[in-house]
Amino acid sequence: MISSAVFKRTFSVAAFGLATSLALAGCSGSADANAESESSAAAAAGAKAPLFSELPQSIQEAGTINVASNVEYPPFESFDTDGTTIVGIDRDIADELEKQFGVTLEFNNIAFDAIIPGLESGRYDMAMSAMSDTVERQKKVDFVDYFSAGGGIMTGTANAETIKTLDDLCGKAVGIVKGTTEDADAAEQSAKCQAAGKAPLKVTVFAGQNQAVLALQSARTDAFLVDSTSGSVIAAGSKGQLVQGPRYQDLAFGIVFPKESDQLTEAVQLAMAEIKANGAYDRILADYDMADHTVDDFPINGVTE
Questions:
Q1: CA–CA separation, 162 vs 167, rounded Å?
Q2: How far is Cα 283 from Cα 253, in angstroms, rounded to an integer?
Q3: 179-204, pLDDT tens digit by residue?
Q4: Are 145 and 254 in contact (CB under 8 A)?
Q5: What structural domains does the chain harbor?
Q6: For strand 151-156 and strand 141-149, is the pairing parallel, antiparallel, or unpaired?
Q7: Quick one: how far is CA 156 from the chain centroid?
Q8: Does the reported pTM lie above 0.85?
Q9: CB 3.0 to 4.6 Å from 145: which of 5, 129, 254, 278, for a disulfide?
Q10: Is 41 exposed, middle or buried (CB count within 10 Å of its CB: 0-12, 13-18, 19+)?
């Protein structure tokens, strides 16, 4: 038989446990309610943004646009000195898009050649990574063109006078970044060299721009085919080691979208027109000394050949 004292102690512990459980349940419910309230408040605030209603419903509800980017391509995107914060033209434009849409543009750092597959698989909503709009790429993705650019030849100072044009690359060791338009440029030029009875290019493909620049600085390559915009920034910061030649072609960079993503594509096109109209677009490019690369409008898949 249980003594009354033991019974009282047992009952007291049980009662305490029940009370504690109820209290915790109440706290949990309160926390969930607070979180839901905060989420609702954020959604309400976002809904007040000028172009929030232009976004797909799924993005309105998520409050986030997942952006793919290869964050080693100044001045478009790179990590700040803290190794975490993303800075550059694309991030600044993304900040302005956030104001128009009332949602967050979250950058995801991935390899450049993984961007299109990531969009095709639905892992990312869009990409901002200084990607050239080409007819070949348009078969897989769509572009909103926003920057006038073009490929160029970067060399070490010692080769700057002897390597100025694509024809000067015959028989030379040339670096390119995997998945870029310069990959095709190198292949085309190599074929031209061979057709002229000269040695083909000795091409080395790198996963990222940093590796290609290091190879050039260590004289493992004679030249690096790179967008002249980014190349100019790198050369300027190389303390005289590197030289960026003029463009050998004119291209357009685009913000990139999966096929069948027309609503988001058109929403971003509209937002770009708005930040052009309010002066933010021109100001951003001027801040990076890229005022001569601005465009007047933002066509979808503007490159046709």
A1: 11
A2: 18
A3: 998 999 999 999 999 999 999 999 99
A4: yes
A5: 57-150+251-293 (3.40.190.10), 151-247 (3.40.190.10)
A6: unpaired
A7: 28
A8: no
A9: 254
A10: exposed
